[in-house]
Design goal:
The complex is a heterodimer. By secondary structure, chain A is α/β, with parallel strands linked by helices. Chain A is built from twelve helices and 13 strands. The chains are: A alpha/beta, B alpha/beta.
């Protein structure tokens, strides 16, 4: 069967995973529309390491959600993944699969999705069916990936609810999603995601709709679970505060391309790319109350009209005419982990 | 910041109860006390921030001041043109005529604009609805003026809302709120749905407009840093009541209520070296149909004592203009956030 596909078969430059759990290389995704192709993601590289959290920061249209949906093969039918793109994932049995080569609804992809790569979303109400109890959802996830009895699955469900901090789990297991508060639903969704003990958890803005107090609790819970279970996390958010508190490594995306990457300290405290710097200056800080905010001029271009060259040049205060609008800049390394794609540093 | 304090709006003991109906006959079985005895004053030209978790009643407070939701009890007095008008007592035509003094900007710029109307017609609607203009030329003039204030071009006015990005739509919403020249605007989560880079622009615009026009804001939001940034004073709501009200810096740097302290501790710092010292609150916000006795926060308060379970704390001024309802406001030393003393160099 397919699960014997090796690392070298489809990987472009023949590199192996180097101990990483997931390696996304040159990911390019286009959407077919009536008005032609829209390039939503254009040449993105990502690496997920066991036990570490990679924060993916970006505003609307940055391609951060589309990229992670591609990893789960959950893209709509109009999406086209470029044949040169590679998504390598190490399965629990040690074999490495090329996810782009799998059929999205095939047996192997279904075993990986939910079983080895799980996902949590911003809106838990959209994840849960209103006519099934919380217990039904978790048991379904367990029974889909493991051969256990219903009774055992139910006990595991109760244990999981308890583990994610839901009080009175043996009563909650028989309740319907609408009977839980927003924060508890988010916990229940995490329980569903963790039910099959995934090695990679993709969290797509999981705390954006929550109150700060609940957000802080969920972030603490995720850190705790990561320590205990050792999974890798891809954490998507637009909130630089949340990123600072949860991520080990960060990539900053803009219009489908990566502007800057590094450890969280490098990106937040020593930001090099003008986009990252401007983004950090645009957020209100408690140390500088009442001062005028630094707004990035212009607006995010629609993916239909992607600017040529560096996509940020239309709003960049340091844009160099004739340079930034011609080609996408090469990568400059500031440290083994800190990389920037910007002409300001090219050749330095 | 206004030089002298002229009250524009006085809210006294505002209550909004929603009936809970059940059974075949729909009998009233109780009330959800969404807003339960809220009092505050907003001065002319200032911004009062209103924060709290979902379910604390902040949106309901804003809407009932505008009479979009009828208040159950209490008084809202509006000082306009040297007269004091009791908004809660207005009826029918009087109320409709008064609405031009108070407007609202909503959270979702996508659903608050009618997709079948041109931007010009959307902005002009309050003028027409209030009968403030005599002819089309006057409407056009006023709409253009307001659009220019909100940095919308003439060409934008002919288009439909779908052609605009989130930030531009929010400008349209702001222009619509301003066109009738109101004294008071309720901003309910106005920038929450916007991208970070766009949010800064809209906040700057709101602050510029206040400086130019002297308009007064009630700014409701769950993002504490945003509220801190735009507000002169901030009120913290919990379970339908205000627990603390103070000038922004005083509230953030030296909070006096344990709930405020817990809220502030949950703000994720944009600095990986400052790990959160989050004070976890036990459980979640209690049911507003059956609020706890005594201090409403006692079920989750880390400093709870016996007196809190039985006696309602008094509303007291513990520092200049710093009001709080806590039995131990004078004794507790609570931790705030930010401030020049904590700022990294």
């Amino acid at each position: 069967m397919r699960n014997s596909i090796g690392t070298s078969e489809t990987s472009m430059n023949g590199t192996s995973l180097d101990g990483a759990l997931l390696k996304v290389e040159n990911l390019r995704i286009a959407f077919r529309t009536d008005e032609g192709q829209i390039q939503a993601v254009d040449g993105v590289d990502l690496t997920a390491q066991t036990g570490r959290t990679l924060g993916i920061v970006g505003e609307s249209g940055s391609g951060k959600s589309v990229s992670t949906h591609a990893i789960m093969r959950l893209l709509p039918g109009t999406a086209v993944i470029h044949p040169d793109s590679s998504i390598q994932f190490r399965r629990k049995d040690g074999t490495v699969v090329e996810i782009t080569q799998l059929a999205p609804t095939g047996r192997e992809m279904r075993a990986i999705r939910g079983g080895e790569i799980a996902m949590i979303f911003q809106e838990p109400m959209a994840t849960f069916s209103p006519v099934y109890t919380i217990g039904n959802h978790i048991m379904e996830a367990i029974l889909a990936h493991e051969e256990v009895s219903k009774q055992e699955a139910r006990e595991r469900a109760i244990h999981l609810l308890d583990r994610v901090g839901i009080a009175n789990p043996s009563r909650r297991v028989d309740q319907y999603p609408f009977e839980l508060s927003g924060g508890m639903r988010q916990r229940a969704m995490i329980a569903v995601a963790l039910s099959a003990n995934p090695s990679l958890l993709i969290a797509d803005e999981p705390t954006t709709a929550l109150d700060v107090t609940i957000q802080a609790q969920i972030l603490a819970l995720m850190r705790e679970l990561q320590e205990e279970m050792g999974m890798a996390i891809l954490f998507i958010t637009h909130d630089l505060g949340v990123i600072s508190q949860i991520a080990h490594d960060v990539v900053v995306m803009y219009l489908g391309q990566i502007m800057e990457r590094g450890t969280v300290r490098e990106v937040i405290k020593e930001a090099k790319h003008p986009y990252t710097q401007n983004l950090l200056q645009a957020i209100p800080r408690l140390e500088s109350l009442g001062q005028r905010l630094h707004a990035i001029g212009g607006r995010i271009p629609s993916p239909m009209e992607r600017p040529p060259g560096c996509p940020f040049h239309t709003r960049c205060p340091q844009a160099m005419p004739g340079v930034c609008d011609k080609a996408f800049p090469e990568t400059t390394h500031f440290s083994p982990t800190h990389e920037v794609n910007c002409f300001l540093y090219e050749g330095s | 910041m206004p030089a002298e304090h002229h009250p524009l709006l006085e809210v006294e003991n505002l209550k909004v109860y929603f009936p809970i109906r059940a059974g075949w006959l729909g009998r009233v079985h109780g009330h959800v006390k969404a807003v339960d005895g809220v009092s505050f004053t907003i001065h002319k030209g200032e911004t009062l921030g209103l924060v709290g978790e979902s379910g604390s009643g902040k949106t309901t407070t804003g809407r009932s001041i505008l009479r979009a939701i009828p208040p159950t009890e209490g008084r809202v007095t509006f000082h306009v043109n040297g007269q004091a008008v009791d908004v809660t007592g207005l009826r029918g035509r009087e109320l409709r005529n008064f609405r031009r003094h108070m407007q609202m900007i909503f959270q979702d710029p996508y659903s608050s604009l009618n997709p079948r109307m041109t931007v010009r017609d959307i902005i002009a609607e309050p003028l027409v609805a209030n009968g403030m203009v005599r002819n089309k030329r006057e409407v056009d003039e006023r709409v253009r003026e307001t659009a220019a204030l909100c940095q919308l071009s003439l060409e934008h006015l002919r288009r439909f809302p779908h052609a605009f990005s989130g930030g531009q739509r929010q400008r349209i919403g702001i222009a619509r709120a301003l066109v009738a020249n109101p004294e008071f605007i309720v901003c309910d989560e106005t920038v929450s749905a916007l991208d970070v880079s766009i949010q800064a622009e809209i906040l700057n615009l709101l602050m510029d407009l206040q400086e130019q026009l002297g308009v007064t804001y009630l700014f409701i939001a769950h993002d504490l840093s945003v509220v801190a940034h735009i507000s002169d004073r901030v009120a913290v709501m919990y379970l339908g009541q205000i627990v603390e009200l103070a000038p922004t810096k005083s509230l953030f740097y030296t909070p006096k209520h344990p709930y405020t302290e817990a809220l502030l501790s949950a703000i994720p710092e944009v600095d990986p070296d400052q790990t959160m010292r989050h004070i976890p609150l036990e459980g979640e916000i209690p049911n507003p149909a059956n609020p706890p006795a005594g201090c409403r926060f006692h079920t989750r308060c880390p400093y709870v004592a016996d007196i809190c379970r039985s006696q309602v704390p008094a509303w007291q001024e513990v520092a200049p203009e710093h009001f709080v309802a806590c039995h131990f406001a004078e004794e507790l030393t609570l931790t705030g956030v930010g401030g020049p003393q904590n700022a990294s160099a």
